Amino acid sequence: MCGIIGYVGRENSERPLEVAREALARLQYRGYDSAGIVVANELGLSFAKRAGKLAALEEQLAAHPLPLASAAIGHTRWATHGGPTDRNAHPHMSQDGSVAVVHNGILENHALLRQELIEAGVEFQSETDTEVAAHLIARAHAAIGDLAQAMRSVARRLEGAFTLLAVAADNPHLVVGARRTSPLVVGLGEGENFLGSDVAAFIARTDQALELGQDQVVTITPESVTVTDFDGRAVEPRRFTVDWDASAAVKGGFPTFMDKEIHDQPNAVRDTLLGRVSRAGRMQLDELRIDESLLRAVDKIVVIACGTASYAGQVAKYAIEHWCRIPVEVELAHEFRYRDPVVDQQTLVVAISQSGETMDTIMAIRHAREQGAKVVAVVNTMGSTIARESDAALYTHAGPEVAVASTKAFLAQIAATYLLGLYLAEARGTMFPDEVRSVMRELDAVPAKIQRVIDGEAAIRRLASEMKDATSVLFLGRHVGYPVAMEGALKLKELAYIHAEGFAAGELKHGPIALIDQGQPVFVVVPSPRGRDVLHDKVLSNIQEVRARGARTLVVAEEGDRAAAAHADTVFWVPRTPTLLAPLVSVVPLQIFACALASAKGLDVDQPRNLAKSVTVE
Ligand code: AGP
Prior knowledge:
Blueprint: E1 3-13, H1 15-26, E2 34-41, E3 44-51, H2 54-63, E4 69-77, E5 92-93, E6 99-107, H3 110-119, H4 130-144, H5 147-155, E7 160-168, E8 171-180, E9 185-188, E10 192-196, E11 208-211, E12 216-220, E13 225-229, E14 238-241, H6 246-250, H7 257-263, H8 265-273, H9 292-297, E15 300-305, H10 307-324, E16 328-332, H11 333-336, E17 347-353, H12 359-370, E18 374-379, H13 385-388, E19 392-395, H14 408-428, H15 433-444, H16 446-455, H17 457-466, E20 472-477, H18 481-496, E21 499-504, E22 521-525, H19 533-547, E23 552-558, H20 562-565, E24 570-574, H21 583-586, H22 588-600
Parallel strand pairs: 15-16, 15-17, 17-18, 18-19, 20-21, 20-22, 22-23, 23-24
Antiparallel strand pairs: 1-4, 1-10, 2-3, 2-4, 5-6, 6-7, 7-8, 8-12, 9-10, 9-11, 11-14, 12-13
Helix pairs in contact: 3-4, 4-5, 8-14, 8-16, 10-14, 10-18, 14-15, 17-22, 18-22
The site of 2-deoxy-2-amino glucitol-6-phosphate has 15 residues, from helix 10.
């Protein structure tokens, strides 16, 4: 997820650069590991780009000012392909400097296209997928002479999710954009027009906007906006007025970043899954650089993480053990390190971390590597310490997670560890390729199911408001529902400051049932009735046990599970999902509930007391 701005005005001035800098400052929440701007005037293209926060680019601009110009495109990056370096920062230039491109998304077929360009003599300057587009657009532009047509011809060849903006040296009064799946909106001005990855890019300049649809190309000049499909057929975009202020615009119109990030979860899972199956139908984790023979020799997997990330690991445990028939231990990093663990060359450590900077996890993987283990990092932040200190990294593509309480990164971590499990199962031969593809098809269907749960959020929010005075809430789950219950409890603790506890449902009778009193709220995550039915029946018994003692039962159950509903005071329905994949949907009502209850209590949802987004101390 990156921040993008495009601007075109009537004459040469400082305005294009001003607009771009202001937009990037506002778009930093979309990506901030590098940034860059290119401006266009009659003399051609001039650009500045730097790794690091926007301040680094500002320093560069102060030292080497860009010239007056009539057009500009700018970019704040959240790295997906190629680390956060100056060379990988956007914009990317064509070899002859005639075209500059910025990009948000993932080009699934970039490797194939890169090879084709290398064979045609192109010398690449970066490791990014975006640079492929820059060269292709420049070559098409040189052949066709029209930047919009060049963009259309290239867009038709690209696979994956992308928003591309391009500007050419031969026409500084025109910016062209193309979008597929990744966002792009048009801002309408007087004698000037804007393009942005979202309205936050230009909200300070205009509230008149055009919505762009799937597979469309837009051309902006100071006086016109032209939209076509990828085949050049004219399209009439919908015009709307942006009724957000600048602050709301940065949150996409949501009241908090957490609300926004909960709603961004379908994209986070979709983007994490994107491009993971080769044309031959085999798993391809191109950033996973561990030899398959070593993976086949692995006799134990140890997941190391903290907090929410550790619950993602616990979910993965059930899937990986089932698919790979390897024992999976899930360890809290701060415990692992001091308990003299049994780790050797046949151990594969999987370190899960959104920030990639959690000191407990860093210290734990250092210890594991000293014992000879290979370490795979499942991280959301490219170039982070955990990624750099691991033998390989498998990136989640959740985009920046601003709220301290993790939501979209959690779902992306689960999706990424499923990918790792399927990759291992294929490499070790414990699953047939067609079985792997079948699970991948089910995974690809999950984002839409997450969206359906989100679409039903109003009822969850109403319930949360009713329950805002609760002082204790219990969460029960069994099998993969158990880590979901733990995560639901953690969300309520860290957001609403309510004592909440997650239990394995089977543990109730071994003590916790003593906590049940009249009216005690108990969430229960019910397994699919179509899965291991013994699990389903056991959990129904647990619900009856607590209800018989006065508990208020709030049940997360699969649509149509009337048996579960019969014992529930409240039911949160979730779409039918295979048992091992169910956590991706069953946790969503619990996230919404905790977020809404904290809001109802007037608490700071994005910055809860006592917490930091990344715990960089032991
Ligand atoms: C999640 O809501 C918490 N903010 C916290 O448990 C977090 O998951 C944990 O600190 C691990 O952080 P990491 O994923 O950045 O390593």
